[in-house]
Amino acid sequence: MFIQTIKTSGLAHLSYFVASGNKAVVIDPRRDIDIYLDIAKENECDITHIIETHRNEDLISGAPILSEFVNAEVLHGPNADGEVLYATTVKEGHQVRIGNLTLEVIETPGHTKDSICILVFDNDFDQGPVGIFTGDTLFVGDVGRTDFYPEESEHVAGLLYDSLQKIKAKAAASIIYPAHGAGSVCGDGMAEREFSTVQHEIMNNPLMGINEREEFIQQKITEHHYQPPYFSDMERLNMQGAPAYATFQMTSSVQVEQLENMRQQGYVLIDVRPIESYLGAHIPNSCCLPIDMITAYAGWLFSLNDKLVIIADDQNMARYAALHFARIGFDNIEHYFSTNMAMVAAKGSCFSTIDAVNAEQVKQLLKDDWHLLDVRKITEYEPIHIEGSEHIFLGHLADKISALSPDDKFITMCASGIRATVAAAYLQAKGYNNVKVFLGSIGAWQSKNYPVIKPN
Amino acid sequence: MFIQTIKTSGLAHLSYFVASGNKAVVIDPRRDIDIYLDIAKENECDITHIIETHRNEDLISGAPILSEFVNAEVLHGPNADGEVLYATTVKEGHQVRIGNLTLEVIETPGHTKDSICILVFDNDFDQGPVGIFTGDTLFVGDVGRTDFYPEESEHVAGLLYDSLQKIKAKAAASIIYPAHGAGSVCGDGMAEREFSTVQHEIMNNPLMGINEREEFIQQKITEHHYQPPYFSDMERLNMQGAPAYATFQMTSSVQVEQLENMRQQGYVLIDVRPIESYLGAHIPNSCCLPIDMITAYAGWLFSLNDKLVIIADDQNMARYAALHFARIGFDNIEHYFSTNMAMVAAKGSCFSTIDAVNAEQVKQLLKDDWHLLDVRKITEYEPIHIEGSEHIFLGHLADKISALSPDDKFITMCASGIRATVAAAYLQAKGYNNVKVFLGSIGAWQSKNYPVIKPN
Amino acid sequence: MFIQTIKTSGLAHLSYFVASGNKAVVIDPRRDIDIYLDIAKENECDITHIIETHRNEDLISGAPILSEFVNAEVLHGPNADGEVLYATTVKEGHQVRIGNLTLEVIETPGHTKDSICILVFDNDFDQGPVGIFTGDTLFVGDVGRTDFYPEESEHVAGLLYDSLQKIKAKAAASIIYPAHGAGSVCGDGMAEREFSTVQHEIMNNPLMGINEREEFIQQKITEHHYQPPYFSDMERLNMQGAPAYATFQMTSSVQVEQLENMRQQGYVLIDVRPIESYLGAHIPNSCCLPIDMITAYAGWLFSLNDKLVIIADDQNMARYAALHFARIGFDNIEHYFSTNMAMVAAKGSCFSTIDAVNAEQVKQLLKDDWHLLDVRKITEYEPIHIEGSEHIFLGHLADKISALSPDDKFITMCASGIRATVAAAYLQAKGYNNVKVFLGSIGAWQSKNYPVIKPN
Amino acid sequence: MFIQTIKTSGLAHLSYFVASGNKAVVIDPRRDIDIYLDIAKENECDITHIIETHRNEDLISGAPILSEFVNAEVLHGPNADGEVLYATTVKEGHQVRIGNLTLEVIETPGHTKDSICILVFDNDFDQGPVGIFTGDTLFVGDVGRTDFYPEESEHVAGLLYDSLQKIKAKAAASIIYPAHGAGSVCGDGMAEREFSTVQHEIMNNPLMGINEREEFIQQKITEHHYQPPYFSDMERLNMQGAPAYATFQMTSSVQVEQLENMRQQGYVLIDVRPIESYLGAHIPNSCCLPIDMITAYAGWLFSLNDKLVIIADDQNMARYAALHFARIGFDNIEHYFSTNMAMVAAKGSCFSTIDAVNAEQVKQLLKDDWHLLDVRKITEYEPIHIEGSEHIFLGHLADKISALSPDDKFITMCASGIRATVAAAYLQAKGYNNVKVFLGSIGAWQSKNYPVIKPN
C-alpha cells in the first residue's frame, strides 16, 4: 500500500500512483505514460482505474492513452460543457476499492466546474480519510485560480470557497496530494514544498485561513493570471482524448544546409540549448527556447500547427525537448539538427550572435537611443522596474511586435536574462537587427544601486 | 524541497532523504548507502547532516559510513549507555537548517532511552511543523516496543506514553515518517500503509487513542516480543560504527566438489533459493533460507562469526542474498555456488530432497508415529493450532534441537510452509533423516475443516 | 564506424548493428527490436537499411517491424518460393553505402535458396572486404544445415559447397559475422566462440577444410537434424511479415482458484520456473518448460494457437518467458500466475510433486517394473545409453505418447535431468500418475560406473 | 567465450574483456574500472588475470586498481627501465588459460621496449590463433609511434619492423584488437573503423605493406609527433601504480561569490561547457576546455598539481569532466560550480564574453592591426594556412605566451573554432583583453575562397 508522486518539471505537474493489493489507481496521468507502466511493472500491479481531478487546461491528459494501454476505466467529475469522451462521469460519494484502500469522490467545483477531490481511506483504519487528492482545488500554500469563467468570476470563486470548507470538514486529518507544485501556471503562491496536511494548510495557507466567503471572493477576483492561447487547444484535446505520444520520434536528423530552406518552407527553427550557447553563436533566424522554458512559453510563441525543427547539442537533448513540447500538444516535430556551431561555420555556413551586456553597459546604451524592453509578467513589472523601460510580457510579444519598429535598437531584460534572451532571439528572427540582452537584468541593475521605479 | 522515502524490504525499514536548497539530511540510513549517494547526485544535493532517531538494534546503521563518504555530521540523541563514537549528541530543541527547512529535535524516550523525533518546519510556512520523523516511537497503526529494558519495563512504557503525548501536543498537524513499516520485528500491529498524519493516528492507532498513562503501561508490558541474539551485536556495532559494506564481494565461485570439504572445515552452506527449489533438490547438508527470510531469521539460526557459502540460482541472486546478510552484520561471505541441481547430479555429486506433504497426507502420517512440529511464533500458535503438535519457535530451533531425537520422524509446519521448510532443512542438515514439510500448514488444514485447538 | 553484435540466448541468434557516419544497417533483426532502437539512439544513428541474410525458419524476423518503425528499406536475397512481402529483392553485387562503409551482396544459396552473404568494405581501406556477414551459410566451426529441401538434398549441399568456395575466394582476409552461435538448432558443430576469420575457418572448420565437392555433399546428406513443426509457421510468417511484439503484455495476473477452470477451458498452463522448483511443488496439470528451454522445445510441445498461462515466480519472470515465446511466434499469452506454492497450499488449493531419484534408486526401481524413458536426441542416444531404456526424443513426445500406457510407471532421463523433467511433467499433466525424474541421468549413471550400451 | 571491446572516447582507448568458462582476462584496463566489474558481474565471470600490452604514457592504467579489487595477477612485458611494481614480468611464450582459451605472449618491442602482443587460441580449434591483442604495436590503418627514445630512434623503429613481421608470421589468420582507435595521440593514420584482421592490414595498412626494413625505418623517423608534458607523469605513475579513482568526488559545490577568491588562492577555474556557451558568457578569468578536449589538452595547459574548480552546466557535467581529468591523472578536483550565467549576473556578479567573428569580419579586422594566431598542429598548419597568421600550437601556448604582448589584439583560429576558443580563453584569463575567435576558421576561410598559403 503506497502512494508514489510523479513530478513533471516544467509543468510543475504532480500525478500519483496509488497501489494496494496488486491493484492500482493513477491520478491525473501525464501524456508520456511510460512511468506509470514502469511503476506498475516494478510493483506487480494492475492499473484498474484512472482518475482525472478536472479537465486540465495546461497540459495533455494521459488518461485516455493509459486507459487504452492497460484497459482501465477513466473517471471524471460532472462536466458542465459536455461529455469527456473517454471517461465515465462520477459524482459525490462514488467509491473505488483497490486492495485495502477505498477512494471516494467529493465534488469540489471552483477552479473548474468539474473539479473533484478524492478521499483515501485505509479500510483497516477507517476513522476519517488519511489522504486527499486535491487536484487544482487546494495546493500547498495556495488555492486554485478561478479566472476561467470570466462572466461568472464571483460565482466560481464562491464555489471554490465552499469546496475548501468541505475539505476542511471532511479531511481535516489528511495528507494533501495536489496536482501542481511551485512554478505552475495554475497558481502563484505555491510553496516549493510538496508535502502538507489539510490541518497545516488551515494554519499556514493564507487563502485557507479566510473564514469569510465574501472576503475570499473579493481576494480571488482581484488576482491577475495570464491565459496562454494553447489553453483552448488543451481543453479541446482533453475532451476528445489526445493521441498517444510516440517515444521514438525524429528518426531524421537534418543537415545544416537544409535548415534555411526548411525555414523558408514554413518550418520554425527552435534552438533549445542553454541561452549562453545561443548568445555565443546560433543558426541565423532560429528562435531560442531553452528546454526548461518550453512548457511555459511555447504555447504563447508558437502554434500547435507549426512544424518545428529542434536545434540541440545532440539527439538526446532534442528528444528531451520534443517530449516537453509533446506534453502540451506540439506533435509536428520530425526533424532535429545536432549543432556544433564551430563545425557549422567551418563548413562555410553563416552564424549569428547576440551580445550580452551588463548594467553599466546598459546605462550607457540608454543614452544612445537604445530601447529597454522588459518582458516580465505585469505582476513582476509593476512593483519594480527601470525608468524609461517599455513593458511587453514575453507571452504577448508575438501579438505586440508590430508596435516595435525594426529600425529601432532594443535591449531586452527580465529578472535574470533568460526570458530576455528568448525575446531578443524572437526579435532577431523577425528581422530586428539591433538587439542586445541585458544579462542579469533587474537583479544586476539593483545590485549596482542604480535607480528604479517602485510605485509604492 | 522534498522528502524521499527509502524502503528496505526484509527489514521493513524506512529511511528518508530530506532536501532543500541543494542541501540534504538523511534520516536513519541503512548500511548499503549507495542509494543516498544516488539521490544526492540526481538532485545535485550535498548531504550535510545524518540523523539517527535512536540506536538501532535490528540492523546496521549506515550513518558512520555515509558520514565518512560525504563528510557530514551524524546527530544522535542523548544515550544513557555511553557515547555513540561517530555521532554528536543532540538534545531537545537542537536545530538543523537546510535551505528553507528547519529540522528540530524533540526527545522521545521509551522505545530506547536515546530515542528522538525530528520536527520539520518550512520556514516560509512556519505555523507548526509540517512533518515529523518518529523513528521507532510512533508507527502507522502501532507504537514502539518497550521490552529492551526488562528491569524497568513499566518505567520505559511510561516514558513512551509521555513521548507520544508530546508528539500530539507539538505536531498535531504533521505528516509522520516512521522508521519501520509492516513486517518489522519492531512492532506487530503496523499498517501495511506507509503514510499517515499524527491526527489520523490519534483517531485510528489503538495505542495513540489511550488517554490513561497507567492503562497504556499495562498494555505495553503484557505484549510479547522476541529478541534475536544478533540484537546485542547490532547494539555494539551501532555504538562503535560498523565498517562499510563492499558492494563487490564474492569474487570467488566455488565448484560443487569443494562444498562438502568446506562444510567439514566449518563453512555453513546456505541455500537462498525459493523453498520449492530446495524441496525439489538441494546440496546435502545445506541449510535453507530464502532471501526474504534472511533479515528475520539469519540472526537466530547463525552467528555473525560463521563463514557462509551462499547457494543460489546464479551470482546475482547470491549477491542479493549477501546484501541482506550484510544489512544485519554478516560479513563473512566470500564464496557462492551457482547451482543447477541437474548438472550437479550429472557430474556424479549427491543431492538431497525433502517431501512436501498435504493436509490429508499429514493426517495419515500422524497415525504413523510422525511428530508434528509447529515453528510459528507463540503469538500465532496459542490462538490456534493442531492437536498433538509440538511448538518450537523457528528462532529457538538451534537452542532447542537437543530436545528432539534424531531417530524420530518430523513433519514441520508453520502458517504456509515457508518457515516449515527452513526448519525441516535445518533438521536435515543436523542429521535428522526423516523430515517432511507440511506445505500449506495451518491454512491448508483449516481449509479441509480438520479439527484445531482454539483455547478461547 | 562499428559493428555491434546482439546475442539472443535460447535461440543462439546473432544479429548485427553496423554504423558509419550516423547511418546504420541492421542485419537479421529479431522480433523484439527495442535493442536496435536503443543502439541507434545511443550512437545518434539513423537506421537506413535492414538486411535479411535468408528467410529464417527458427525465429520471427524483426525486419518488417523495425522497417516500419524507422522507415528503412528491407533487403532480401532472391527467393525461389515467392516474394517476401516486406522486402526488396537484391542480387549479386548490390551495394549499400553508409558513411564510409560499403556493404555488398553475394549470393550464397545452400542452407536456403535465398541465402546471401554481405561483404563489408571500408572505403578508405578498400583492398578486399574487412568483414562478411555469413548468415546461416558459414558459422564458427560449422556450416549451415542443408536438409530443408529433402527432394534435392544433394543439389543444395552442392550449392552450399560452391557458396563456401565463393566466400574463400572473395573474403579470405575477412572477419566472419554469422547468424548463429553454439546451441542453435541450425547446426551442431558450432564453436562456443563467436569471433573468427574466414582464414581461421579454412584452417579449423572441418567442413571448410573439405576441398572435394562430392565428399562435402556426402557428408552433408548423412547429417541428422530435427525439424520442429513450428518451422513451417516461421516460414509463412517470415514471408508475410509477423506483427510487432507488444512489450507490455499480460496486464492480467490470475488467481490460483481460476487456474483449473482456465485449464478446462483449453488454456495450457506452463510453469517456467527452474526444474527444481517444479519438482518440489507445482500446480496440478501444469507443464514444465524452464525459460532457457522455451525456444528449443515450445515449438515441439505446443501449437502457436494454444492459449497459454505462464506460471512463474513473479511478473518479471513471466514477462521474460513471454518474450521468449514471442520470439518464435507464440502470442496468445495474456495471463500469468505469480506462484508461491506455500501460499497456494495455505489457501487450500492442491499441489503436485515429482520425485527426483538418483542412479542407485533408478537401478533399484528398474527391478520393480519401472520403465526408463530416455528423451535425448537420437544423436545423443545412439552412441551411449542404458540397457533397457526406451527412446523417445522429447520433441516427439506429444506425437508418440499414445504408445505409452498411463498404467505404467516411468522414470524419465536425458543428459542431466532437465529435459527429463520437462518430459515427466508432460506425462503427469496428461494423466500418467507414476513418473519420477532421474536427476543426473546418463552423467550420474556413468559416474557410478554402471553398465551402458555403446554400439561401437 | 567472448571478447568485449570497451571504448574510452577522448583517449580513443580500447580495452578488452576476454571470457571463457566463467574466467576472464582484462587487457589494458583504464583507471575507472567499474565497467570491467559490471561485465564480470553480468556474465558471472571471475577476472583472474590482467594484461598490460605495454607501459602506457597517455593514460593512467587501471591494472593495479582492478588487480586489488578482484585479486587478479597483472602481467607485463619485460621492462628495460625497471620493474612495474604491481606486475609480474612475462616473456615470449608465456601462456594463460581461461576456460577453453589460451592466451600466449609474444614480445613485440618498438613502440616501447616492453611492448608485447597476446595471441588468442581456441583450444578446440587450435590451428593458429584466432585473435591478437596488438597494444600500440599495430593499429587499424597505422602502426605505433617510435619517438619515445630519441637517442635510438632508428633502433626502435627497426625493432617495430621486426615485431610487425613476427605478427605477420604468427597471426596471419587473426582478428586484431589494438589499444587505440582513431583520434589517439598514439598515431595519426588510424582508421575510424575498429575491426580488422592481420591479413586485411597487410593489404591495406601502408606501413604493414612496407617490406624493406630500411624503408620502414626512414619513414618512421621522419614522422612528427607531439609529446605532452604529462606523459612523463603517466610513465612514473604507471610504474608505481596509480591510486584508485573515487567515483564519488566533489561533494562540494561552490558559490559564485567564492570563485574569484579561490582563483586568487591558486585554484584554476576550468569551464567545460560547449564553446558556444563560453563565448556567450562566462566567469571572468576562467579557462575553457570542453569535455571532449580534456584528455587531449589538459596535460598541455595544466599541471597534475593544479587544484581545479570545474565550471559546468550541472553536477553531472562536472562529474563527467572530472572523470576525464582523472583518466590522465588530474585528481585535485573537489569543487565545482554549477553555472547559469543569467543567475550569476542577476546576483550582481561580473561576467565576460568573447566575440565570435566570421571570415569576412576577420578579413576586415586584419586590416586594423589584429593578429591572427593559428593554434593547430604543425602538421595541419604547414600544408595550408592564412597569410600573415602566426603559428603557436595550442599545446605550446602556455610556454610561448610570453612572446605575445598583452597590449596587442588577437584573433585565434584553428580548423573549426574549438581549439581557437580554448586558446582565446586562455589568453583572456591571462590578461589579454582584446581577443576574438574566428568561428569556422580555416574551413570558413576556404569556403569563401579567400587566399591561402599552400607551400607545395
From TrEMBL, chains A, B, C, D:
It holds the Pfam family Lactamase_B. Gene3D superfamilies: Rhodanese-like domain, Ribonuclease Z/Hydroxyacylglutathione hydrolase-like. GO terms for molecular function: hydrolase activity; metal ion binding; sulfur dioxygenase activity. Residues 263-345, 366-454 form the Rhodanese domain. Keywords: Hydrolase, Metal-binding. CDD domains: POD-like_MBL-fold (cd07724), RHOD (cd00158). The keyword Metal-binding applies. This is Hydrolase. It comes from Paraglaciecola polaris LMG 21857.
